[in-house]
Amino acid sequence: MTTTFPATGRGDTRSWDLTEPATHMRPELAKFWRDRRQRTPIFRHEDSSTHPGFWVVCAHDPAVRIYRDSKRFTSQRGNVLLTLLAGRDNAAGKMLAVTDPPRHDRMRRLMTPALTREAVFSLATRIRERTARLLSEWANSGEFDFATEIASRIPIWTICDLLGIPDSEHDLLVSLTKQALSSDDAEQSAVSAVAARQEILLCLLDQVQAQRRRPADGLITRLIGSEFEEAPLTDDQIVTNCYSIVLGGDETSRLTMINAVHAFAEDPALWRRFGEVDDLGTAVEEIIRCFAPTMHFGRIATTDLDIDGVHITAGDIVTMWNISANRDEKRFEDPDTVCFDRKPNPHLAFGYGPHFCIGAPLARLEIAIVLDELRRMTPAIVATGTPQPLYSNFLHGYATLPVAFGQP
Ligand code: HEM
């Protein structure tokens, strides 16, 4: 397989191995992406002894074209580097994110009614009450860890409400989802992540079986009563799709909140500006553009094709780096500045096209409520320690974030 960087040659690629989590912790990363967008918006990433080469799309425009083209780019052989490089995703054709149309459309229609803007709005009161309670518990305590005490609880508790899972299971799911996807450090074993995923599946299976006996108010019971391809859904089908909600919805929202609060603690003027925001919805969209943790998604080309003069061969892995596309100066004026009134804001943090994040209304709602409650509570956020960065080639952000409420 040919593996060259058009603009800078092999030496440069070796020092910027995007499969390697440590690469994403380098301080010059923003400059790397800026250079790449300008010089080679689509480039070939080196292969290695452990993985094949792949295409890296770092500009906004070609990323949009790939996201919306599920005919020439399949999700069924994975949609993140981990599975794409392994050559398969075990949930292909069963889980929404890794199923292609037309089956994908039928599957998505089952889940959409529970996740519309109107439907998730019914969860708002509980989200606000819980957030206010947690924050007031910590308000006078001096230092606390925003990541573990607030952000790791609100999204998964909300997803549990959405699925109809009782409060008694909430904390178990908090700790399992944390182990299942991101890595807090280089030492964390892949074995413990796999074990955590198995436990989440078992926990969801228990819930499906319990709700078959005693219906609850939530998505699991709704799926139990639904048909898919003219047959009732099996336990396996329900578990797989609820699992995609748990994995897709918990850590993404959690890390967006953490990354935003980290930025607010680093830049008191930014926090003051956020305190003055009237249009919270527009501000939250900008927070998602700037601080969403999901760095990339990907596809496999199903056919030979050309994009912007780059020849892609059937079977090639193509990755879209939202973290770069969302800072594309051709699409966003002053892309490195957080503009709370940015409108329109065509960011790709939720993807684009048929797989556009089905949980976007919920993510927007819970991020807005948590940050709104936080700004009611304190005029200043003070960092009281060094946050622990994640070790991942997929998610960026912090596992811990020690802070205190301060004076303006
Ligand atoms: C800030 C928070 C979030 C971000 C940044 C995010 C990001 C994304 C992105 C980029 C995709 C498209 C993936 C692709 O094209 O391969 C996606 C899909 C998806 N997300 Fe989210 N997400 C967030 C919150 C949520 C929430 C709260 C839920 C669940 C309630 C959720 C569930 C899903 C599911 C099930 C899919 C697959 C949709 C499909 O394939 O049709 N996400 N998300």
Task: Describe the structure in brief.
The protein has about 400 residues and is of the alpha+beta class. Helices cover about 50% and strands about 10% of the residues.
What does this structure look like?
By secondary structure, the chain is of the alpha+beta class. It has helices at residues 10-15, 29-39, 60-68, 81-86, 103-115, 117-121, 124-139, 146-151, 154-163, 170-180, 190-213, 219-224, 235-266, 268-275, 280-291, 322-325, 360-377; strands at residues 42-45, 54-57, 73-74, 144-145, 227-228, 231-232, 296-301, 305-307, 310-312, 317-321, 380-383, 402-406. A hairpin with a 2-residue loop joins strand 5 (227-228) and strand 6 (231-232). Protoporphyrin IX containing FE (HEM) is lined by residues 67, 75, 79, 96-97, 108, 159, 244-245, 248-249, 252-253, 256, 288, 292, 294, 297, 349-351, 355, 357-359, 362-363.
Give the SSE order as H and E letters: HHEEHEHHHHEHHHHHEEHHHEEEEHHEE
Helix segment tally: 17
Q: What structural class should be given to the helix and strand makeup?
A: alpha+beta
Rg, Cα atoms, Å: 21 Å
What keywords describe this structure?
single chain; about 400 residues; alpha+beta; Cytochrome p450; five-stranded mixed beta sheet; three-stranded antiparallel beta sheet; 17 helices; 12 strands; about 10% strand; globular; disordered N terminus; binds protoporphyrin IX containing FE
